[in-house]
Amino acid sequence: MPPRIGVVVFPGTNCEHDVVEAVESLGGLAELVWHSDDSLRGVDALVLPGGFAHGDALRPGAIARFSRVMAAVADMAAAGGPVVGICNGFQVLTEAHLLPGALQKNRYLSFLCQMTDLVVASDRSVLTRGVEPGRRLRVPINHFEGNFTASPEVLRRLEDEGRVVLRYVDNPNGSANGIAGICNEAGNVVGLMPHPERASSRLLGSTDGAVLLTALLQSAGAAVHAPTR
What residues have CB less than 8 Å from 94, skipping those under 6 apart? Predict the structure, then answer.
């Protein structure tokens, strides 16, 4: 049975169907999960997609983190289930304290929409498991507030524990240590600013994002966690 990937829809997200299409093109089953749902219906993994949840009011992800579905997201994360936040989804995960740090406005205060070279910095996450560290991937970014920041203590811990999973080759937004993606201590919760779903087909100009999404599907298929709410 192919793994079932839930894709959370908040008011203002705009990448949920891109994620669904990418997941299904790689052999997974995808289904949309509404922000007001209190159950994840037993999905094997979860993606919080990009966009502008609640119009980025207050700050990106600040309102979405109070959505009813987030209690179930937190339960799934605590039980070891794979949870990935892409772009705005990464911002939601930091606001919900499922990942450390925060995302602030890009260096030079410019919106960035471009292909970006990444390097896999760690294979200890559900998104990079089985991917050789040092491998380069070309994946697009599309954000205004993707500049990752954290205290020196948090940054040191992320680096020492191998929790920086993706790093920019040429830092486009000023992120601390060139960080493009991080994971939690268990490696099952991942946030990244680049969009792998937009680099999953040759028609999109790159298939490098499929490397990450395939790792997620494999992690979802192997995941053993308690039933979700």
Answer: 61, 100, 101, 102, 103, 191
Q: Render pLDDT for 155-177 as a digit per residue (tens, 0 to 9).
A: 999 999 999 999 999 999 999 99
Q: Which of 87, 95, 143, 183 is catalytic?
A: 87
In terms of Cβ atoms closer than 10 Å to its own Cβ (0-12, 13-18, 19+), residue 114 is: exposed
Q: How buried is 1 (Cβ within 10 angstroms: 0-12 exposed, 13-18 middle, 19+ buried)?
A: exposed
Predicted TM-score (pTM) of the model is 0.95
Burial class (CB in 10 A: 0-12, 13-18, 19+), 45: buried
Exactly one of 16, 95, 145, 197 is catalytic; name it.
Answer: 197
113 is catalytic: no
93 Cβ partners below 8 Å, 6+ apart? 48, 61, 83, 85, 99, 189, 191
Give yes or no: 17 in active site.
no
List, for residues 23-69, the tens digit of each pLDDT value. 999 999 999 999 999 999 999 999 999 999 999 999 999 999 999 99
Q: SS3 for 164? A: strand
Pairing of strands 147-149, 112-120: unpaired
Structural domains in the chain plus CATH codes: 4-222 (3.40.50.880)
Q: What is the distance, to the nearest Å, from the Cα of residue 108 to the centroid of all Cα atoms in its chain?
A: 24
Reply yes or no on whether 54 is catalytic. Answer: no
